[in-house]
Design a protein that fits this description.
Blueprint: E1 3-8, H1 19-28, E2 31-36, H2 44-53, E3 57-61, H3 76-83, E4 88-97, H4 105-122, E5 126-131, H5 134-147, E6 152-154, H6 161-169, E7 173-176, H7 186-194, E8 200-202, H8 224-235, H9 239-253
Parallel strand pairs: 1-2, 2-3, 3-4, 4-5, 5-6, 6-7, 7-8
Helix pairs in contact: 3-4, 4-5, 8-9
Amino acid sequence: MRLADSHCHLNYKGLAEQQDVVLARARASGVVAMLNISTREREWDDVIAVAEREDDVWATIGIHPHEADQHAHVDTAKLVARAAHPRVVGIGESGLDYYYDHSDRDRQRASFRAHIAACRETGLPIVVHTRDAEDDTIDILRDEMGKGAYRGVIHCFTASGDFADNALDLGLYISISGIVTFKNARDLQETAARLPLDRLLIETDAPFLAPVPNRGKTGEPAFVADTCRFLAELRGQDAEQLADATRANFHELFTKTLDKTGA
């Protein structure tokens, strides 16, 4: 299989200390593309540096909703300026998280809109985080789409089937993480089984959410192969064909990745 991990955090504790080994294991498992996601401004230089060093790793710049209160100064202009780097291929992760409420909800919403505006200006896709905020998330996505088209992906999808349908109607992609392999993820499995193949991505969100049979371990990009195999069986598809399709979708969405490597 030749796989793309559409969302990982290679600079997070658990991976950063052994990054070379983690990347070697990923490549040995068939991972040929990885998107290293930022969540705070202080991470931007580090995630970009990894992407500069590794031909199969790209970067995003953005502010996680947990960090919105601490990053009121990060506006659309700042995002656009940093996104000009050739190895930055997306904006985010950004969105809404009402489960933890680590940041004021109004501040989260304002930050989310600033990220989407940066997507429109740069042509780069947005990486959307949403948890316990389905209605507000889809309302903002739809409202912003009315201001001008943009592309994006709902990362680590765990929302309802209705939310998935609304996101698909807006032209967005949906990325499935190792959560789909968990025994208690029945609703997610039902949705994942019916998602259109041409809008589907796979991710690890490493170092989090290691899939079965590695659940409980530190997640890493190599484990995207386990999620792919599970998802293929769930959907009644060949795992290698699913890997090819989701990798192609990754490059179709994050078109800047084609500047050097192609799919």
